[in-house]
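idk why but the lab printer keeps eating my pages so im just putting this in chat instead. protein + flavin-adenine dinucleotide:
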Amino acid sequence: MPGTTSIWQDTHSIAPRPALAEHLTTDVCVVGAGIAGLSVAYTLAKAGKRVVVLDLAQIGSGESGHTTAHLANELDDQYAQLEKARGVASTRLTAEAHSAAIDVIEGIVRAEGIDCDFTRLDGYLFLGGDDTREVLEAELAAAHRAGLTEVELVERLPIRGDEEGPALRFPRQGRFHILKYLDGLARAIESSGGRIHGNTTVRSIAGGSPAVVTTDAELTVRASDVVVCTNSPISDMFITHVKQFPYRTFVVGLRVPKGSVPDALYWDTLDPYHYVRLQPMDATHDALLVGGEDHKTAHDDDAGERFDCLEDWAREHFPVGASSVSPVVYRWSGQVLETHDYLAFIGRNPDGAEHVWLATGDSGMGMTHGTIAGILLPALITKGTHRWTQLFDPKRVTLHSTELLEMAKENADVALQFRAYVTPGQVGDVADIPAGEGRVVRRGPHKIAAYRDAAGTVHECSAVCTHMACIVDWNTAEKSWDCPCHGSRFDPLGKVIGGPATADLKRITSNE
Ligand SMILES: Cc1cc2nc3c(=O)[nH]c(=O)nc-3n(C[C@H](O)[C@H](O)[C@H](O)COP(=O)(O)OP(=O)(O)OC[C@H]3O[C@@H](n4cnc5c(N)ncnc54)[C@H](O)[C@@H]3O)c2cc1C
Ligand code: FES
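predcted complex ->
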């Protein structure tokens, strides 16, 4: 059975960058080397700014390395829904922004000669479950009002028989190999004088002139502007986190003969929805990447079942070969941040910290949202204005009742997570933890995150998340401690690997 390495990590490696080893002064410090961070750094470096990028791991090791990299101007929550929440003027700007992002990626691929399998292709939205034609008709009308006038209703999907229509066809979508793209972006940044440092965890960011970034090695980067692209922001500890919610989403990759599935993007109308695309593997086969089965982070630990459901769903809808032989060659998962009103937060840090900017909340649209950050934030930094400023403003509050209700429900769920302080541990004793696994154990009033390594040694940390003190939970598939409240993640030994937390889980020594 395959592990949880993504197809991108399996087929391309990016040279690691060294850790920051000195204090620096620069024009812009970008924190996070995923698609958002590198898109921002690329635009600024090309504009002649001195840019320093810092990442706690390496280029593309966050959610960007776990994506499926659909490049779409169809919104994953659909235009009909966005229109109800924010009106037609907003859907028009949204369609413009996501379309521009695909154009920008295509332009960068050409200008920098990045060999990353970039392809333009159609995207199809088709009916899932009991959804009816009216859902597609409403979305078609909303997409047209948003300015996507080439979208059309077709009676059949290219993959399936007569019984499988109707669907909406979105022309000129895209797909690429994300790590090859990020590799190309990184090289272009460096050849324009930018610096990229891996293995450098940012612990704090202070706004001002200059703004100051402090790392785990107590090194500082003083910058005229700091751009926080850590997926979940580490500069704003509260405001954005009550308006966005972490979900885990799952992917299987099935080996299929070339030509057996037409090359397109496919999404169904379910919530959570399925998302499907091809990625070339070799001369004779492609990988059919099938994603979905989302659930709230750390609310279930059942990745195996989610992968099985995706394989069953793929068999039902695509020609993937005999059921006696599993064609699954990849299985992985990742985290997305769903905002209260379907659009990312990109702009000035909402707590007012001077010269601090952020990009977050990109949902299942992070490839385009990250690229939009690469257009919008450099414009705000250098010119102070852009036509998309209000659309993505991190301080915005959307007053439509459905979205307010959803936000209240999500935050009530966060409050409920504090029950974990009084519940029993997942196992009664660390002796019950198998090698290579972690479990939360109760010891008196304390919850302990205990991990047994392959050699049998048990490593213990406090299970209290260092962001706002929720109790973390073990993620069996990804071997990490995940926080159910705002999605912070920690490796088995408690080292922070994803924000909003910036501090590691507190280690427990044998004397405590
Ligand atoms: C399974 C899956 C499928 C998806 N499919 C699609 C899709 O088809 N199309 C699409 O558009 N989007 C998709 N998405 C969403 C998209 O992949 C993400 O939204 C996007 O990659 C996020 O990019 P980012 O640069 O914001 O974050 P990341 O790629 O996570 O980068 C953030 C970086 O910040 C670093 N970091 C964090 N904390 C610190 C710190 N304290 N100090 C220093 N560095 C730090 C991390 O190490 C990381 O490298 C998918 C996501 C998943 C999980
Ligand atoms: S991520 Fe906020 S409490 Fe853990």
